[in-house]
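Aim 2 progress. For Putative 6-phosphogluconolactonase, the working sequence is reproduced below.
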Amino acid sequence: MVFLLDPNASLAFALNSNSSPSSFQNGLIESYNTSTAQSTTGITSTSYTRTGTNPTSMAVDPGGNYLVVANHGSGTTNSSTGDVEIFGIGSNGALSGPTILSSLPQNSCPNPDKIVFPPSGSNGTTSDTFYVVCSSPELISSSPPTPALYRCQISGSCSTNLLSSFPNSNAISNMEFASNGTAFLPGETYSSSSSSYNAFLITCNGTPLSSCTSPTPISSATDTAPAGDFAIYNGSPPTAFIGNYSTSVSGTSTVLTNPGVFFSCAASSCSNLSYPSSSGDPTYLATGPGQANLYIVSTPDPLPTDTSNISNSPSGSIYYCSLPTASACTQTGTTSNYPVGITFDPSGKFAFVPTWSGTISIFQVGSNGALTPAASPVVTTGNLNLQVVVP
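Predicted structure tokens for this construct:
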């Protein structure tokens, strides 16, 4: 699932993929009224809107008027293309449209994977800019298309591919902006000779973005793959904290090979950090209110490839680590099976943790950063979009 709030924290949107590896279908967006977050009933669902095939990402423009969705397509072959949809946001979260972004070239962007708005320069009009990451991490060990990055406008126009000279057979797993306008893009590459995955980080600069660096390797004791969302600490220079998802096969079972390890990266170098390995791999990260703490949600089991074994998994964990170093981490809560994100409302009062088991847990944020349950978990519809691509 992808779960996000609008700039005013009055609305929230949950993106359900309704997909499995063998049957990719149209997705579903659920709109919520978040003004009831502090009540015992949690947040209130207000409307449902269908999307295209296998949606993997969505973003709301900073003006709060448009919601943009990346429909990845089947993701099983290079010819199974997706598209990008632009919805208008009406009262109480009702969505209108969509408009298909027809100017996005399907030959270089067959599988849109991530939508990101820059931190400034948007005011809720059709001239607003957003970025589309085109990548297929699920094909990394076979024949993935070369990643691409396009700058587009709500009006429908798209610019030249910013990663036109990027190495082949790599996959971008995410993208986020620092407050100074620098864009961080972690990704992974696969070595067929060693059957291992290795992570990298590239940065892009300019307003709008105009140039990107060569990949900087992220080193670890074992093979690595960036996982889920990552967090940016807006220091000088900014620091990216990147999750690590690393598995291997032991007998007939998949096991975690490098639990408890995540990465701290500046523009040109990365180092390893850790928290208790018994909590599993850090699959989603976020900075909390005031950027005082880094929050990590983790899974103790390898992620499933379908929904059949979700209920048999142990609960996930939430840790918070003091910034700017994130060197000391303390557990502050548990989640339902397989957490797939953590989002804070702009007021800093609440944290929302969606899970692949179909719930959204709501926590109150204490003055020291600790989380306490605020309401009964909200149950969503459909099969939720995993977002972490299992290599």
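Residues 238 and 266 are 7 Å apart (CA to CA). This observation will guide construct design in the next reporting period.
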